[in-house]
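Practice problem 4.
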């Protein structure tokens, strides 16, 4: 790709066929291919390919989940500083169980805050599950339904990990 040889030589030859009005577009494609050719990847090492692919998927998923914080609310002004404050209360560097309660009137952003925190720290744990509206769902469907949701979430993740390794 970087040298645009082999199949990539067609791009250089195609410049003439695209005409002058598309010359800029072809030049941008060539520049993009050159940049892509200069990227370094992750070394496979002595791992199985399926295990290697699984680790790449996990890394990308973690990066994507962190970027979802900005999509949580239309008016997330000040959300990041609140998430950082809440995160400091958790003291994640200490390996102990933490329970944090957040209370307040409805509609003030408790769920939005906790969802943002969840997306920021979930990748630090082997398994994670976000349950919103616990009070409503448990009173309507019972606690067993909530337990099923948690178990299914964990089992699906475990199944997908095993399936990827077996492939």
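Answer key:
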């Amino acid at each position: 790709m970087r040298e645009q040889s082999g199949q990539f030589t067609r791009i250089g030859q195609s410049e003439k066929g695209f005409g002058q009005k598309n010359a800029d577009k072809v030049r941008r494609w060539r520049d993009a291919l050159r940049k892509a050719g200069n990227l370094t990847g992750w070394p496979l090492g002595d791992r199985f390919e399926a295990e290697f692919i699984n680790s790449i998927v996990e890394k990308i998923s973690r990066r994507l989940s962190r970027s979802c914080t900005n999509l949580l609310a239309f008016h997330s002004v000040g959300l990041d500083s609140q998430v950082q404050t809440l995160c400091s209360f958790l003291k994640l560097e200490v390996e102990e169980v933490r329970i944090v309660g957040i209370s307040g009137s409805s509609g003030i952003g408790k769920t939005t805050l906790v969802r943002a925190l969840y997306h920021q720290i979930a990748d630090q744990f082997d398994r994670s599950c976000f349950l919103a509206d616990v009070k409503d769902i448990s009173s309507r469907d019972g606690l067993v339904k909530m337990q099923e949701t948690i178990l299914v979430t964990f089992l699906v993740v475990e199944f997908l990990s095993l399936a990827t390794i077996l492939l």
